[in-house]
Design a protein that fits this description.
Layout lengths: L8 H9 L14 H4 L10 E4 L3 H6 L15 E7 L2 E4 L18 E5 L2 E7 L5 E7 L15 H22 L12
Antiparallel strand pairs: 1-4, 2-3, 4-5, 5-6
Length: 179
């Protein structure tokens, strides 16, 4: 019953086949001990965030990887524009702004899940759920346990900052992507 995410696949598969992890920040964790039943709780939170890519692509940032290396990287079920693949585009994020942290986002740590999203009126809505006692997420505990929500919000913002830091290219060497 350990929560998992697709980001856990790389660390788990590397551990299973005895390969070292890349030397860069990873969101996932090695879950091999969950497979044998010795892990009972996830060691790190799960994070979710719908990053606003439209704002980034409108600013026409420079590609991080040579565009030629990004052609045809994503297979399609049907032809699109006469091609059986979609070109993946990987941009270097120019500069981090407060607006970059907007968008629906959530963190699950232990028994709690915090969901944050901006509403059309400009306000931010926060919802806190106890997934052990309320797996259907019907009772918002934000008023009853604001300290838990604040702690989770801080962890979520720190994670967002690490993601944005990576998007600027700071976690990767240029040499890795020119091969």
């Amino acid at each position: 019953n350990v929560r998992a995410s697709t980001s856990d696949l790389l660390p788990t598969l590397c551990a299973l086949v005895g390969q070292p992890l890349p030397n860069r920040p990873l969101d996932g964790v090695d879950l091999t001990s969950a497979l044998d039943g010795t892990m009972t709780e996830r060691p790190n939170p799960l994070f979710f965030w719908e990053f606003n890519t439209e704002r980034l692509t409108r600013s026409k940032p420079k590609p991080w990887i040579d565009p030629e290396l990004q052609k045809g990287t994503t297979p399609l079920v049907k032809l699109m524009g006469g091609k059986a693949t979609r070109d993946f585009t990987n941009y270097r994020h120019p500069a981090i702004t407060d607006d970059d942290r907007l968008g629906p986002r959530a963190i699950i740590e232990g028994q709690f899940k915090l969901v944050i999203h901006e509403q059309k009126n400009g306000n931010t809505k926060r919802e806190l759920f106890d997934l052990q006692t309320d797996p259907a997420e019907k009772t918002n505990l934000i008023e009853k346990t604001p300290a838990v929500a604040d702690q989770l919000a801080t962890r979520l913002r720190e994670w967002q900052q690490s993601v944005l830091h990576s998007l600027t290219g700071a976690d990767y060497s240029r040499q890795e992507h020119s091969k």
